[in-house]
TrEMBL record:
One of its GO terms (molecular function) is metalloaminopeptidase activity. GO terms for cellular component: cytoplasm; extracellular space; membrane. PANTHER family: PROTEASE M1 ZINC METALLOPROTEASE (PTHR11533), PUROMYCIN-SENSITIVE AMINOPEPTIDASE-RELATED (PTHR11533:SF174). Coiled coil: none annotated. Keywords: Signal. It comes from Longimicrobium terrae. InterPro entries: Peptidase_M1_aminopeptidases, Peptidase_M1_dom, Peptidase_M4/M1_CTD_sf. Residues 359-503 form the Peptidase M1 membrane alanine aminopeptidase domain. This is Peptidase M1 membrane alanine aminopeptidase domain-containing protein. One of its GO terms (biological process) is peptide catabolic process. Pfam families: Peptidase_M1.
Length: 595
């Protein structure tokens, strides 16, 4: 009866418009206009942000929560205290000249002075601004915030060194208000970011020789490689003075205005030594028609030889072009790839900051333009939906390019984790994982294998339709794992509740083994091989059995089953899961010599 009810529910889902099934039925409106001046050599940034905030929720709001992420990179923050639990003192020991900070100097709401309070003090990454009066559903307010900020000399998701600046986090960022309330997470080493979609109109006052790469498109001024005449992008509208950058830029300085629409964050980097490379793109559709596509910028230093001669910009180009075939058209007018101080990489809308130009890193971070950039999940709550999904797509790309061994390392690592009992449920919020290593494995590695199992289970063509449908229905929206599951079930016409429950919310163990394999010669000269397959553990998946040159897929829910396979020649061995698709607890018992 439960099964019948489930199928009936799925039929109803298929008949309901997709928009009605979304877990998040509204998104708040946030438009930022920011003016900021970077002083050198102090590295201090002075800024003013005016935000128009529209309450599209059904709730009256008496408080607005704001993230000040830079305050994570200093002593006594929640981040620093969490690192101490792991025996690390990187930010705890930073001196006053080296740690980061972000401090309000003035806050007003609709012209009335307001005060920021810190509900999880001494951590100051989350600020609460009490409103003079509740903001009713459908209402709007104007929030003006003046602040000073400085990056840390220890690069971690931001940083400064000499005249190089990676402003990944730098301004007061409105927290997301959703159906369940405010998502006002403190910034911790485990977990990343979540923001409201909106328009960013940012004017930066910097030294005249600085080269700037950013989320937005330069519409006024010269970022250092592409002078822009006033009004060249009329849609951006006139620059509305905030009274902060009064008058013309001082001698030896310049102002660059950048605009980005429908993004949930704005990041930028600056270095006077940056070299700029650019490639334009033209796409051809199935009918042979061409259309201009977003261009690719790369900014790197003279010594970054691995980036040069269009190596980085071409890898970025190739990754984005492939992703458009998998999901759909990229939503924004450009993509910028900059070399940052820190190793690894971090994604932002329209921009990636990378520590190297390796193909794997570039593909991973560019994939985030889709998975978290345009399909914006809560990275604290469901990190697997962007990091795990992105890790899978990165390996998928390598498969497409002919890397036949791409999954072996992943599956070997997962088997070690399973056997060491170093796993937790993938669905846990980031801060609930026991260690950074387990967080990484359960957020990146294991989910990537889960997405691969899903692809093999529903079939590659169906999986591609799932990707395109998910993107078409949720582009530039907040998404959840439940949203993805609903699309996957609707497109594949399969009940996948068992799959997501088994692999995402539980830690069930899967272990298939070949207990016995014997061959008998038939009167016609062929060989019949009898294989006994056992299943231990609570998990199950369809499993491929290879006998000689023949393969067949077993339903495999039984604890023990006997399978007979006829082949022309006597097989030497039988193998379960020969392509290493399943997360198997003990792969050593997946093969056996034929007796």
């Amino acid at each position: 009866m439960i099964r019948i009810a489930r199928l009936f529910a799925l039929a109803l889902l298929a008949a309901v418009p997709a928009a009605a099934q979304r877990s998040q039925t509204f998104q708040q409106g946030v438009d930022y206009r920011i003016e900021a001046r970077l002083d050198e050599p102090s590295g201090v940034l002075h800024g003013r942000a005016r935000l128009r905030y529209v309450n599209r929720s059904p709730d009256a709001l008496d408080t607005i929560y704001v993230h000040q992420h830079l305050n994570a990179f200093r002593p006594n923050s929640a981040w620093a205290r969490r690192e101490l639990e792991y025996g690390e003192r990187r930010f705890t020991d930073l001196g006053p000249d080296d740690h980061a900070y972000e401090r309000f100097t003035a806050v007003t709401v609709d012209g009335t002075a307001a005060r920021a309070v810190y509900p999880i003090a001494p951590d100051s990454t989350v600020a609460a601004i009490v409103l003079p009066r509740p903001l009713a559903p459908g209402g709007s307010l104007t929030l003006v915030m003046d602040w000073d900020a400085r990056l840390s000399t220890l690069p971690r998701r931001q940083g400064r060194a000499g005249r190089h600046y990676d402003f990944a986090q730098w301004y007061p960022r409105i927290a997301v208000y959703e159906r369940t309330g405010w998502a006002e997470h403190p910034l911790l080493p485990q977990g990343e970011f979540y923001g409201e979609f909106g328009r960013y109109d940012v004017t930066l006052d910097v030294a005249a020789d600085q080269v700037v790469g950013s989320t937005g498109v330069a519409v006024e001024g010269n970022p250092g490689y592409q002078p822009v005449a006033l009004g060249i992008v009329p849609a951006a509208g006139p620059a509305e003075a905030l009274g902060f950058l009064a008058g013309a830029a001082a001698e030896g300085r310049k102002r660059v205005r950048m605009v980005a629409d429908s993004v949930h964050h704005f990041a930028w980097s600056a270095d006077p030594r940056y070299i700029h490379e650019y490639v334009s793109r033209t796409l051809v559709d199935d009918a042979g028609r061409t259309r201009p596509a977003p261009g690719i910028h790369a900014l790197f230093l003279p010594e970054d030889t691995s980036w040069a001669r269009q190596a980085a910009v071409r890898r970025t180009y190739d990754a984005l072009t492939w992703l458009e075939t998998m999901f759909g058209p990229y939503a924004w007018p450009q993509l910028t790839n900059v070399h940052r101080l820190e190793g690894g990489g971090t994604e932002f809308p329209m921009m990636v900051m990378n520590g190297s130009a390796s193909e794997g890193l570039i593909v991973h971070e560019v994939t985030h333009q889709y998975l978290h950039g345009m399909l914006a999940n809560n990275e604290w709550r469901e990190g697997w939906m962007d990091e795990g999904f992105t890790s899978f797509m990165t390996s998928y790309y390598r498969e497409m390019k002919g890397d036949t061994a791409v999954w072996r390392g992943t599956m070997t690592a997962l088997e070690r984790l399973e056997r060491a009992d170093s796993t937790q449920a993938i669905a846990l919020p980031a801060e609930e994982f026991r260690s950074p290593a387990i967080f990484s494995a359960m957020t990146y590695t294991k989910p990537s294998a889960v997405f691969r199992m899903l692809r093999e289970y529903v079939g590659e063509d169906t999986f591609k339709r799932i990707l395109r449908t998910f993107f078409a229905e949720y582009r530039l929206r907040h998404v959840t794992g439940a949203d993805f599951q609903e699309v996957a079930e609707r497109v594949s016409r399969r009940d996948l509740d068992w799959f997501f429950d088994q692999w995402i919310t539980r830690t069930d163990r899967l272990d298939y083994s070949v207990s016995q394999a014997t061959s008998t010669r038939l009167p016609d000269g062929r060989w019949r091989t009898s294989v006994i397959v056992d299943r231990s553990g609570a998990a199950w998946m369809p499993v491929v059995l290879q006998v000689g040159g023949r393969t067949q897929t077993l339903d495999s829910r039984a604890r023990r089953q006997t399978v007979n396979v006829t082949t022309a020649d006597r097989p030497a061995e039988v193998v379960l899961d020969p392509e290493w698709v399943l997360i198997d607890y003990n792969r050593a018992n997946n093969r056996a010599a034929v007796q």
